[in-house]
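Journal club prep — side note

Before the paper discussion, L.F. wants everyone to see what a predicted structure for a comparable chain looks like in token form. Sequence:
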Amino acid sequence: MKTSDLKPWNWFKDENNDKNRHFSLPTRQDTRDVWRSMQEQMDDIFEVVQRNMPNWSKNFMKPDIDIRETDDHYEITAEIPGVDEDKVTLEMSDNLLILKGEKKAEHEEGEKNGEFHRVERSYGSFKRILNLPEDVQPDSAEASFDKGVLTVTIKRTPLAKNRHKIKIKEKKKTA
């Protein structure tokens, strides 16, 4: 009897042998490496494309909005820096609050004003539509504009005082 007969069978003895390598199925690690490499290549492509894309933000503007609820009113604030108050309109219709406005570019094209190397500020028209809850009192809406921040306050209808919780009973199990 040989000592090699006492060892358990090595099922994977030829797995790393180069002459048999092209016959084996890809391992999980091999597929992970391929996907990782492909993902890195895609990231590189998107980075190059993004770097060479024109700045689309100069034609797009969407003001940031905060909505706060208190017991008696809603307070909606919208940041619209660089927009003049007379360029902003605010309307309420069918439980919708519609905020519209426009920010004009502050520079003129031409050599007399110099050449821009980069423009990152947003310009253009904007429109935000907010669906208001049913408990608003539309006639109570008030708005103010200070330092590029629009604040809208709308009173709420008081909730019914006779509200109460209903206890949910566990269903009885039948055998």
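L.F.'s comment for the group: The two ends are 67 Å apart (CA to CA). Keep this in mind when we get to the figures.
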